[in-house]
Amino acid sequence: MTVRNTVAYAIEQAESAAREGQQQVSLHLVAVASTRAVDPDAQTELGQAKDLLDRIEVWLDEDLGESPPSNLDVELGVIGADRYLFSPGDYADAILAYADEHSIERVVLDPEFNPGGTTPMLRPLEVELVRGDIDVETAPVERPARSTALARAATLPKYLTIFGASYLFYLLLSSYKPLDFLTGAITATIVTALLAPIAFSRQPSLTRIPRQLARLAIYVPYLLKEIAVANLEIAYVVLHPSLPIDPKIVEFEAAIWGDGPVTTLANSITLTPGTLTVSVSEQAFDIHSLTGGAREDLFDGGLERAVRFVFYGREAAAIPSPRERGQGDDDGTIESDIGDPEVADDD
């Protein structure tokens, strides 16, 4: 771990600046927690971040001694818990927002900061941070030589989850003959042996997954109903003599986080006729909508609430809809107007 040395370097730099000058120097030591309050793993991850801050507080006392400079202010905090963090750009936005709020001019990164797990994050993060009007550096501390491990601990929950998913998928494609059950078990076993060491960035919960599957069974009929209703609405538009379409691309900020929920919502929007997920960035979905009615349904938040219900439970489903959060009312959410289907005048 290089965190200890990185903290020591930051303290040394801040203390030196404070002793050499008369102006006030602020040192912010923050941990980035890529979670949200309603995320089932939030308490664990936030607890880990707070534990790190507790250790940093001890290191502060050790490094500053009994007589720290009077013009040196130190603040500890956790950032990122109020937004969905996925890409290096997301992490950079969280850091830059904090830096702007506290007038920070210099950011020092731990050389082993890698919230992406096995995916290298530091270099792309540095590139993204250049967008801000701040100095960015990686702490010049020694890093232990190590090779990137693609394999993670293959625990029993991983084995059972992958085996169950593979076996059920195999049976869905089979004719349910006795031989299919045997070959399905063999195939699922092979898949489990190959994927268990590399699957899942977090340990699956054998208590949470059954509840999510049960709620998913409720969600599927709801989604099919939404698809059927949207099909009828689009059929009416297509068959109407005046073809009353109003295509636009809108930015839709969803209160969901995590790979599974984001993918589920993006695909659900695409499966519903009249809306198409163009891209997903940060907390924002860029959605192509064919009609005003499709946009109204999008901002009413039915699909978003349903996806939150599947992954986070009934409490998360009560979060205000996008419209209740101020979206969809000519407030800048429209990113691009595709224009009318009629030929425009040259004027």
TrEMBL record:
A Pfam family that the UniProt record links to this protein: MNHE
Bilayer-crossing regions: 156-173, 179-200
CC annotations in GO: plasma membrane
Key word Cell membrane present: yes
InterPro entries: Cation_antiport_E
Topological type in the membrane: Multi-pass membrane protein
NCBIfam families for the chain: PRK12652.1 (NF009295)
The protein's name: Monovalent cation/H+ antiporter subunit E
Provenance organism: Haloarcula japonica (strain ATCC 49778 / DSM 6131 / JCM 7785 / NBRC 101032 / NCIMB 13157 / TR-1)
